[in-house]
Structure formats: structure tokens, C-alpha cells
Specification:
The protein is α/β, with parallel strands linked by helices and 302 residues long. It has helices at residues 3-14, 18-55, 61-68, 72-98, 113-124, 131-139, 144-150, 153-167, 185-191, 203-213, 228-247, 256-263, 273-301, and strands spanning 103-106, 127-130, 173-176, 195-200, 252-255.
């Protein structure tokens, strides 16, 4: 299987280049510009109301009304810009600890590994790969579901392991793995060459996501009978019981329930992919710094 050469050339052409870095910097500059413009407008309005207030014998009520009145669009824009800035700063904190190591995202189907992975790769200046897509390219079949149908799950898993083996020899990658990649111990050997991150999403939320888009692309779900949500939830529950211990082998766990509670949301669907990416970087940094402390302590004692 001529995977290594193909991956090397693909890695160079996708990201890890000045083009991506310029795009990321350009986005940040644009966001900074929006933020500064908004701040300037707020200050100008505040000064205007202050002048009027002084004429009206010190009545400052208009100032308060102006400063705190926001539209939903404006508030969403503020939140988006704030998250982007936090993400950028956190990536700068984490990069020195990563030392070019790859990041492997694991988790159940529908957990958002590809979406979050692309955000992480962009902000870190890494390349992004979806292991399922690489298997499809390697065997010349356009979907995982079709591979299962034409060959078998075992055939897919064998090729998945070959892909992860080739990726493990590289650097500066963010890899979104398939939901079942964790079931083979050999895959953990490959992924542990980098940092593994588990995106832990409540099963109810996963079932809703999958039911909304259909199960045709999910070979482990598509043959089940019943309405989309019910069959998705039942199968996800069974898979979770089978794979729960395997997912817990990850170096870092990103709990969407924890993030939602921290932000005051009742439902994880209210979370943005950027917020999840920020939490992933926080967990990665925590894992790497703790490991560095342990290594230093062992070195001093030895």
C-alpha cells in the first residue's frame, strides 16, 4: 500500500504552509479590526451621552442605557470574536508543548471530530486528515458504508490500521479518526505517538445529530429498523458500552456536558465548535504540562 508517499505529498499541499498561516493571521486581523471598531463606537456613544448628561444637571441614565443595550446580532458577533481570540491565544500557549506531535481525535460517530479537527489544524498551522477519507481513497471506494457492503467491517478495520500506522510516522497533523478506531490495541500504539483527545458527547445529542442527517452514511446504524432517533440512540448506547473503556485511554477528555455547564447552557447543542476546540487545547496543555512535571521529577530523583 503506497500510503506514506501519498500522505506526505498531500500533507504538504493541504496545510502546514505559509498560505494557511496567512489565512489565520488575516482572520485574526479582521476580527481584531471588528473588535476595535466596536469599542471605538461604544466609547464615542458614551462620550456623546456624557456631554448631554452634563448639560442636564448630571443625569447619567442615558449612559447606562447606551452602554448595555445590545442586539442579538451584536452580542453574537462579540461572542464569536472573543472565542476566536481566546482560541488563538490558547494555541500559542500549547504549541511549544506539542513539539510538532500529532493530535488524534477519538469519539463516537457524530461527535464532531472532523469539524473540531479542522479548527484545531487551522489555528495550530497543522495539516488535517480524516482517517475514514484516507481509507476510502486507499481502497478506491467512495464511502465507508460501501466498503462495509462490498467487503466487510474487518477489511475496513485492516485498512484503517494501515492508515494510522502511516500517519504515526508524521508530524504536525490533526487526525479525525473513525468512531471504531479505538477498538484495536494496535491503533492505540500508533496514535500514542502523538496526543489523543476524546470528544465525549451525550448519547442523546449524538442520536439527534445523526437522526437529523440520516443514517445512510453510518453502516453500523443503517441496517437497523425503527425511526432514525430511536435506532440511533439504541445502537449508540450499545456501542458506548462496548467502547467506553477504550475511549478512556485517551490522553485528554473533552466533555461537552462540562463545557455547557461552565457556560450556563442546558443543552450541548448550544456550544460552538470553537468553544469545543478551546477546551480541547486546554486539556491538551494540561496533559502535556503534567507529563513534563512528572518527567522532571523522575529525572531529579534519578
Amino acid at each position: 500500500m503506497e500510503m506514506s508517499v501519498a500522505l506526505s505529498s498531500q500533507s504538504c499541499s493541504w496545510t502546514g504552509s505559509e498560505k494557511v498561516r496567512r489565512r489565520a493571521d488575516g482572520l485574526l486581523r479582521y476580527q481584531n479590526s471588528l473588535l476595535e471598531k466596536n469599542r471605538f463606537q461604544t466609547l464615542r456613544l458614551r462620550d456623546s451621552w456624557s456631554s448631554r448628561a452634563s448639560i442636564r444637571s448630571g443625569n447619567l441614565k442615558p449612559i447606562v442605557a447606551c452602554c448595555y443595550k445590545k442586539s442579538g446580532v451584536s452580542e453574537n458577533l462579540h461572542n464569536s470574536v472573543d472565542e476566536a481570540l481566546i482560541l488563538k491565544r490558547k494555541s500559542e500557549d500549547v504549541l511549544p508543548y506539542l513539539n510538532q506531535r500529532c493530535i488524534y481525535l477519538v469519539g463516537m460517530m457524530g461527535s464532531g471530530k472532523s469539524t473540531v479537527g479542522k479548527i484545531l489544524s487551522e489555528v495550530l498551522g497543522y495539516s488535517f486528515f480524516d482517517s475514514d477519507k484516507l481509507v476510502e481513497q486507499a481502497v478506491g471506494i467512495s464511502s465507508v458504508a460501501q466498503i462495509f457492503k462490498v467487503h466487510s467491517e474487518a477489511f475496513f478495520r485492516d485498512n484503517e490500521s494501515e492508515v494510522l500506522r502511516d500517519l504515526s510516522s508524521m508530524h504536525r497533523l490533526v487526525v479525525a479518526t473513525g468512531g471504531g478506531a479505538v477498538i484495536r490495541p494496535i491503533n492505540w500504539k500508533y496514535m500514542k505517538q502523538g496526543i489523543t483527545v476524546w470528544l465525549d458527547v451525550p448519547l442523546e445529542a449524538l442520536a439527534r445529530r445523526i437522526a437529523a442527517v440520516g443514517t445512510a452514511s453510518r453502516p453500523l446504524l443503517h441496517q437497523e429498523s425503527g425511526d432514525p432517533y430511536t435506532k440511533a440512540f439504541a445502537k449508540l448506547t450499545a456501542l458506548s458500552e462496548q467502547r467506553g473503556d477504550a475511549y478512556s485511554n485517551a490522553d485528554a477528555k473533552v466533555s461537552l456536558e462540562y463545557i455547557a455547564a461552565k457556560q450556563g447552557h442546558q443543552d450541548v447543542s448550544a456550544l460552538t465548535p470553537t468553544a469545543i476546540a478551546i477546551e480541547a487545547l486546554i486539556k491538551i496543555e494540561s496533559f502535556l504540562t503534567e507529563r513534563a512535571v512528572v518527567r522532571n521529577s523522575s529525572y531529579l530523583q534519578g
